[in-house]
Amino acid sequence: MSNSPMPSPPFPPPDSALLRVIVRNAVEAVRSGEATVEEAILHAAVHGWYEGHIAGEDTCPGCDFRGELPKSTRRS
Q: Which residues are paired to 63 by β-bridges?
């Protein structure tokens, strides 16, 4: 894993148990033939983004986490 800073959310934390479940499910779907690699990646990306969005809203409802804005900047 890189020591560089993560980009702006939404994304689940890299050590998230839920992220591990999402990735494991994607790998299992490919191995079982239930999904192609492309389908599994898309599914994992969408669910990872969504879970990160939820985590961000839980941490700071109404905050904006984009670009150079501080973490607690309120949306206008």
A: 74
Name the pTM for this structure: 0.63
Residue type, 43: H
Give the separation between CA 31 and CA 21, rounded to whole angstroms.
15
pLDDT in tens, 20-69: 999 999 999 999 999 999 999 999 999 988 887 777 777 666 665 554 55
Residue listed under structure tokens 């050590």: 15
Phi first, then psi, for residue 37 (nearest 5°) are -60, -45
Handedness of CA 10, 14, 1, 22 (dihedral sign): negative
The structure tokens listed for 70 are: 């501080």
Listed in sequence order, the residues at least 6 apart from 69 whose beta carbon sits closer than 8 Å to its beta carbon are none
